């Protein structure tokens, strides 16, 4: 048995070292033919790029072909970035045993107008044992044979797109320094790739990790803190759930951290303040992150700090005064308010604080610090004894208050923040300031005098229906409530009526059941008075998701779709990404597919993607 194993190993070695430049040329011709080389961008511009001589003659050298690099009379590099490769990778690729660099990203010069590389990777791919750099990003490969990507022992840089669950074997790439998993460029990206591959934490030589648009089902594991040599970490739409792990504070060599587009992923851990080598910190789009951790003030080497869209509350920490190297500070789209730290070390016009809760108290005082500060969130209107007023902050004499009803200007006051309405109308106020001229504070719209005080309006799905509840604390001349619903939050229809209490000064509770909700339903209340006047409530949304199911699978002649509540557009794509059938489908009504040949197809219905086998 040992003799047989030795013989096999010797045969493999003999094959690996007996390859010639002619073998390399033939392997690349096979790739040219399999990847539609005649349509490559460089094939149409020979004056700008050396074209491939195909079919050529035995003994021709490929070393001057576009994207080809040779050393020692062997091809060691094939890089076709920006090229319009389209097709499959042939098994002959395994003959390029001297390759150190293989760069075949999808997209090409014409971007996504044409399919990129697809199908199964050949098992012969595993022969590329000298490969150090591999870029197959934005291509669409089947799960079959995908494991060969993780069997290349010398890989230092790997970029790929995944439409399948990444195996634990990724942890075997012990020499990897750069890892990019980016699913945004595939023909048919998958929203759920299973659990985040914790084995990535074994790649302790990693200096750069980029994961984008992969939508792993689980959160980022705490083991990420094992990557102690990491200098750049980029996570964008990488997980569906989970928070930033506190172990991120272990990445002491990190100089750049980007973590974005992961709503409801918790707070920013205070341990992030341990990353004192950071020059760029961008944590955005968390949605509900609470107060900004004061420890960020420890990151004294920061050049860029971006915390926009996180739903941060409270004030900007005073520790930010220590960030003396900041050239750009983005805090927009949060719920921050004053007071503001002095931030005296920041040069003028370097802070973006749009869409927060700042008033002229801050905007007027520090106006020269802000690059942008317009469009703050709406300020509340106070009501007392029939008089409306608003607190816009700043110096009252510098403020001008313009009161509107139904978009009609009815009063303009400078230095006076009060207004006494005379009619039952919807009022709002816009406030400007002579110092902070780039801002205009806009109030909420209120009805005065208010016939009904609505303090709560909610809806929850229950056993296939949506249960609506609301409360009032006072009612005057209240006839009742019409319940309206919509599919799109624009066109509403009446679905019921609940009688009001008329005149009441105590809390009144109401409820209504919608027995036939949509998958996503918008609701609002139309409060009616006995004199014919009415007022709409805010709009609320309820998601009542139902799984879209396509059956049978495999399908023969017909297939049926369930889980949709109305007619939908259906597209059927073959394995090359071409649309081969497009039609309308209705719930539980058979769809004829008998004209399609046997094969595996991708079916898209709305935002749902399914794979179905068709056989006759």
TrEMBL record:
Record keywords, A-Z: Signal
Residue intervals of the Secretion system C-terminal sorting domain: 550-612
InterPro entries on file: Leu-rich_rpt, LRR_dom_sf, LRRC69/RLP, Secre_tail
Signal peptide range: 1-20
Coiled coil feature spans: none
Protein name per the record: Secretion system C-terminal sorting domain-containing protein
């Amino acid at each position: 048995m040992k003799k047989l194993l030795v013989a096999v190993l010797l045969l493999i070695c003999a094959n690996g070292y007996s390859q010639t430049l002619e073998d390399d040329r033939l392997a690349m011709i096979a790739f040219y033919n399999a990847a539609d080389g005649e349509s490559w961008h460089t094939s149409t511009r020979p004056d700008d790029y050396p074209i491939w001589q195909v079919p050529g003659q035995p003994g021709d050298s490929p070393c001057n072909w576009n994207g080809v690099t040779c050393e020692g009379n062997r091809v060691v590099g094939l890089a076709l970035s920006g090229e319009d490769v389209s097709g499959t990778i042939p098994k002959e690729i395994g003959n390029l045993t001297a390759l150190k660099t293989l760069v075949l990203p999808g997209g090409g010069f014409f971007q996504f107008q044409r399919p990129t590389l697809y199908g199964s990777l050949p098992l012969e791919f595993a022969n590329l044992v000298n490969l150090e750099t591999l870029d197959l990003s934005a291509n669409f490969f089947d799960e079959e044979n995908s494991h060969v990507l993780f069997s290349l022992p010398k890989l230092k840089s790997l970029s790929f797109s995944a439409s399948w669950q990444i195996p634990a074997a990724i942890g075997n790439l012990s020499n990897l320094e750069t890892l990019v998993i980016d699913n945004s460029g595939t023909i048919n990206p998958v929203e759920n790739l299973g659990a985040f591959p914790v084995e990535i934490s074994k790649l302790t030589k990693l200096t750069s990790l980029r994961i984008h648009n992969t939508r792993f089902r689980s959160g980022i594991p705490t083991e990420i803190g094992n990557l102690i040599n990491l200098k750049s970490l980029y996570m964008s739409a990488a997980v569906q759930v989970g928070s930033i792990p506190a172990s991120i504070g272990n990445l002491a060599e990190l100089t750049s951290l980007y973590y974005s587009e992961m709503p409801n992923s918790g707070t920013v851990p205070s341990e992030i303040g341990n990353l004192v080598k950071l020059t760029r910190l961008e944590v955005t789009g968390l949605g509900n992150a609470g107060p900004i951790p004061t420890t960020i003030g420890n990151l004294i080497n920061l050049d860029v700090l971006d915390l926009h869209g996180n739903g941060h509350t409270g004030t900007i920490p005073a520790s930010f005064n220590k960030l003396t190297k900041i050239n750009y500070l983005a805090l927009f789209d949060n719920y921050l308010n004053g007071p503001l730290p002095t931030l005296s070390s920041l040069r003028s016009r370097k802070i973006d604080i749009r869409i927060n809760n700042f008033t002229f108290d801050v905007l007027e005082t520090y106006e020269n610090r802000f690059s942008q500060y317009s469009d703050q969130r709406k300020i509340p209107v106070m009501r007392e004894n029939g008089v409306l007023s608003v607190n816009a902050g700043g110096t009252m004499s510098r403020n001008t208050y313009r009161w509107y009803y139904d978009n009609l200007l009815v009063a303009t006051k400078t230095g006076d923040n009060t207004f006494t309405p005379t009619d039952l109308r919807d009022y709002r106020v816009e406030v400007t300031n002579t110092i902070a001229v780039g801002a205009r504070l806009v109030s909420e719209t209120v009805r005065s005098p208010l016939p009904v005080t609505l303090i709560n309006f909610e809806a929850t799905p229950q056993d296939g229906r949506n249960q609506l509840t609301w409360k009032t604390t006072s009612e005057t001349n209240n006839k009742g409530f019409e319940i309206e619903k919509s599919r799109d939050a624009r066109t509403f229809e009446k679905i019921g009526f609940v009688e009001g209490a008329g005149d009441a000064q105590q809390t009144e509770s109401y409820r209504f059941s919608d027995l036939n909700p949509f998958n996503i339903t918008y609701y609002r209340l139309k409060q009616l008075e006995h004199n014919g006047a009415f007022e709409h409530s805010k709009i609320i949304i309820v998601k009542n998701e139902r799984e879209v199911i396509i059956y049978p699978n495999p399908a023969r002649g017909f297939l049926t779709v369930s889980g949709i509540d109305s007619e939908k557009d259906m597209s059927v794509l073959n394995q090359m990404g071409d649309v081969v059938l497009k039609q309308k489908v209705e719930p539980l009504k058979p769809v004829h597919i008998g004209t399609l040949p046997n094969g595996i197809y991708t079916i898209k219905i709305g935002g749902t993607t399914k794979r179905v086998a068709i056989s006759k």
